[in-house]
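hey m, so remember when u said the tokens were messed up on ur end? i reran from scratch. heres the input so u can diff it against urs
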Amino acid sequence: MVKQEVLDKYELVVGLEVHAQLLTKSKAFSSDRNEYGRLPNTNTNPVSLGHPGTLPVLNEKSVEYAVRLGLAVNADIRG
């Protein structure tokens, strides 16, 4: 019975971490152009290079795509 009492105290929550290349015009956290197949470090700016004093800005389109995926798989979207 002790095992069942312990199990009753918790709720199983499972999350998915999905990595995908999105067809957006800019990168997820900077305004750098998002062009696949380019040479490394050619589409960069101070934000993507991590220069001091720069702050990332979230690409709204990437959030939209993530929410769409969540809705498509009937996920519980929390934010």
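this time it looks ok to me. The chain has a mean pLDDT of 89. if urs says something different then somethings off w ur setup not the seq
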